[in-house]
Protein 1
Amino acid sequence: MYCVRNVTEDLYWVGANDHRLALFENIHPIPRGVSYNAYLLLDEKSVLFDTVDWSACRQFLENVEHLLGGRGLDYLVINHMEPDHGASIEEILLRYPKVKIISTEKAFMLMRQFGFQVDGHELIEVKEGDTQSFGKHVVTFVAAPMVHWPEAMVTFDTTNGVLFSADAFGSFGALDGKLFADEVDFDRDWIDDARRYYTNIVGKYGPHVMHLLKKAGTIDIKMLCPLHGPVWRENIPYLLDKYVHWATYEPEEKGVVVAYASMYGNTEAAAQALASKLCEKGMTNVWLYDVSNTHVSYLISETFRLSHVVLASVTYNLGIYPVMYGFLQDMKALNLQKRTVAIVENGSWACKSGDLMQKFLDDEMKGMTVLNERLSLASSLGEGKEAELDALANAILASMQ
Ligand SMILES: Cc1cc2nc3c(=O)[nH]c(=O)nc-3n(C[C@H](O)[C@H](O)[C@H](O)COP(=O)(O)O)c2cc1C
């Protein structure tokens, strides 16, 4: 049975939702599932924009077949060939062998590399600024390298202002019927997943995203059709503003993420005490996470959101606690910058974690300001530590002015 929705009068969502996948890219937990979006335009020509993951292929094919109603498929535009969108290309080719595939040179190269059997079909290689008419609708192709793979492009329908934005403006989370962002309370129920999706999947490529956003600023976008998550037809500046923050590594809010690593609870207790101090002093936008039981994708997302980070770690065999070290490496890998960091260290006989975290932040990352004040624990937060704790909280607050 088909499951489709109208996007405009002649454009349809033909994607599918996946609640079975536990880990996106086999790394990131997606407890609310994910959608694979594809779109079918029924103009004088019939045009399919992207395909879906293999797991959603059957539903997708039923959707396309239903809407075509016996009509052939004229074009398949592949904005992004990554297998969670391109895996069903061959199934389309088997059913509609006369379809012409429009994509970039790099995408065709990668399709061959992945073993997608596209040769023998009509391939139309496009580049930045090329246009194509499908009847009433004329589209233009815009290169979007590294958003989030090198072959990516986006397609802008100049007739109605729809931007097929590939992985840009996407989100984790299954749609479950609610196709449009204005059909949900996005700021309450979706923004955390959208941020976690962006920061972990595309976060590294901020300059490339800014490049695309600058190009997008020159066209009159009425609708954003991403390959995951809701379609945007209202309040697009809200999402663009979030993207500018994320892509330039500017925090969205003044606030503190406290990430702690603790084996026996003493470093955790210090993190709690610091959070209480901050709240007592008026900064209540404070969020505590145990790195051992919080997937790092959530830590990354929160670190992109907030201006300040407290790293509280035990020393572990003369090193940083391994899970905390993993978090630091992820921050570096995703190019996170421009945060103010406070350090809490703990060691019972040879405390090293503070110096090592400081060195990592100074040497390996860009634009991180580490506060001079540091809370240093010998096993636990003893009575005599009140002044140090206070000084650290004050330093965090002072750096927010
Ligand atoms: C496996 C293991 C290795 C540790 N290695 C060190 C170390 O090299 N240097 C040190 O000063 N403390 C070391 N510690 C002690 C911890 O850094 C920390 O002081 C202690 O676990 C108390 O903090 P917690 O209650 O937050 O876990 C180690 C503890 C464990 C369990």
Protein 2
Amino acid sequence: MGVELALKPYRRRFAQPLQTAHGPWMWREGLLIRLEDSLGRVGYGEVAPIPWFGSESVAEALAFCQAQGSEWRSHPVPAELPATQFGLESAMAELAAENFDIWQEPSSTAICGLLPAGERALAIAPQRFAQGHRTLKWKIGVHPITDEIHWLNQLVQALPLDARLRLDANGGLSSAQAKQWLVACDRVNTNPQLATIEYLEQPLPPDQLTEMTALGNGYQTAIALDESVATVAQLENCWDQGWRGVFVVKPAIAGSPQELEAFCQKNLPRLVFSSAFETVIGRRAALAIAARCSPAPAPALGFGTQGWFADNWDTLTPAELWERL
Ligand SMILES: O=C(O)CCC(=O)C1=CC=C[C@@H](O)[C@@H]1C(=O)O
Ligand SMILES: [Mg+2]
């Protein structure tokens, strides 16, 4: 059965640059995939790489897909192209599914609201709460640590008691700064009058797993790995090295969805699913994986990424988005 593959690269601009310890992110580049079989069934997929997390670039994904031509199904996607593995496998899964369009976007209470880095988080947090989010995520390691810890203390004073806060350092802290942050987090988490800090995400670079394990054992506040576990291979490696803290998983850059689901079902890890700032096409596939891998009660989904771009693509269906490009 012939399956035709069509590709559409895209670029979309953040309304405001996303500030993280990796630096400002202004443009999200990606690649949409459309498959159609001889029966007229269609499947969409998305390649949404994050090269600074270790994935391939859009150019590498495009070169691979174009080089395959009509033979694209006869060659396995190399492990070095995890975002391409996700995109192609998701598109094939949708093509084979009876009807992918029974789609239900999760409610805001099930989604973690994303706050801008810096002091602006103080003004945006109430808006996220008003939108229904009860878990919020704040990027740290962007401004001087004394300023950020000062803003943290203001933020938790302003949040309702049932709020949960995730702090994401994107591997940008030194060991001393990570300890400074964990002291500040434990001070909040031992005060029953304040909101809870759910975890400190990727405090150190991925090559410092031993230090992060020690931090996890030395403080009350949990540590989550993100950049350390970007692919299924890295998930398995950290698991095999004994990591039992939180695993933040971005399905769009993790590689094969089937392999990811197998890892989840085999090990039942403490998982938080996270967006790669993909479009509706990648989002639906990633959230479908999260739904299959997250036993209730699941932690809030790290998919508060809609509305961060300067376009209206988040309001479109996959077919409408494909036609728009
Ligand atoms: O995880 C979330 O809640 C939202 C997604 C998110 O924070 C990220 C997506 C992609 C790259 C990073 O800037 C960032 C992260 O590090 O988790
Ligand atoms: Mg992160």
